[in-house]
Amino acid sequence: MKRGGLSRAAAALAAAVICASAASAAPACRSDAPAPAPTPPPASEASAPRPPVDQALPGELAEGAEQAFGLPIPRRMKVRARFPDAVFAVGEIPAERVANYVRTRVLAGNVETGPAKTIFSRATVKSAPQRMLRVEVVSRAHVSELVVRDETRPPPERGLSVEERWRRNGLTPDGKVLDPTRLE
């Protein structure tokens, strides 16, 4: 054995260990080896089936082209009347399905549910939160009626004094009527 170097036996042993480790790693590098199994998705993702982008889940209503103050009307409902502050739509859909449709699209301050009517008061549409709405889903015989009312207050006029605000509403600052003939 030489000083400062490895003996031939030690060098051969080191070479054998390197070859053995390279040989055991080689099958994992080949392309014909099976790929490792993908990790399963979290439980929340696995339990919720994802439909194709252009399809609704079973029992879910699809959005139609018409809107009422930012709330899309279900595709199977027809708008019967439009006013500046209300939209009325009717369709042959169970009221429960229409209420669930509305529930997924609005944030409501209060929801009242009854056997023939569901009311979403102080509601805002998730995609258009600038308006305050009252949404009613009413069951009538074999049809459902959707009533969407815009309850958004107009912004106050800036630069008016308290007296001017009272006067514009037809009252004096102490609450008396300015022109009693206008009330008739």
Q: How many strands appear in the DSSP assignment?
A: 8
What best-fitting shape do the alpha-carbon axes yield? elongated
Low-confidence stretches: none
Query: In angstroms, what is the radius of gyration?
Result: 35 Å
Distance between the termini: 124 Å
Oligomer: single chain
Helix content: 10-25%
Strand order of the largest sheet: 3-4-8-7-6-5
Give me the secondary-structure category.
Answer: alpha+beta
Taken as a percent bin, the fraction of beta residues is: 25-35%
In DSSP terms, counting alpha (H) and pi (I) runs of 4 or more, how many helices? 4
Name the helix and strand elements from N-terminus to C-terminus, one letter apiece: HHEEEEHEEEEH
Q: Please, what is the average pLDDT?
A: 79
The largest β sheet comes out as: 6 strands, antiparallel
Describe it:
The structure is a single chain. By secondary structure, this protein is an alpha+beta fold. It is 23% helix and 33% strand. The protein has four helices and eight strands. It has helices at residues 8-29, 43-47, 95-103, 162-168, and strands at residues 63-68, 71-74, 78-83, 86-91, 106-113, 117-125, 128-140, 143-150. It has a six-stranded antiparallel β-sheet with strand order 3-4-8-7-6-5, covered by helices on one side. It is elongated and about 120 Å long. It starts with 7 loop residues before the first helix and ends in a 16-residue tail after the last helix. The mean pLDDT is 79.
Give a brief outline of the structure.
This protein has 184 residues and is an alpha+beta fold. Helix content is 23%, strand content 33%. The protein is elongated, with a radius of gyration of 35 Å.
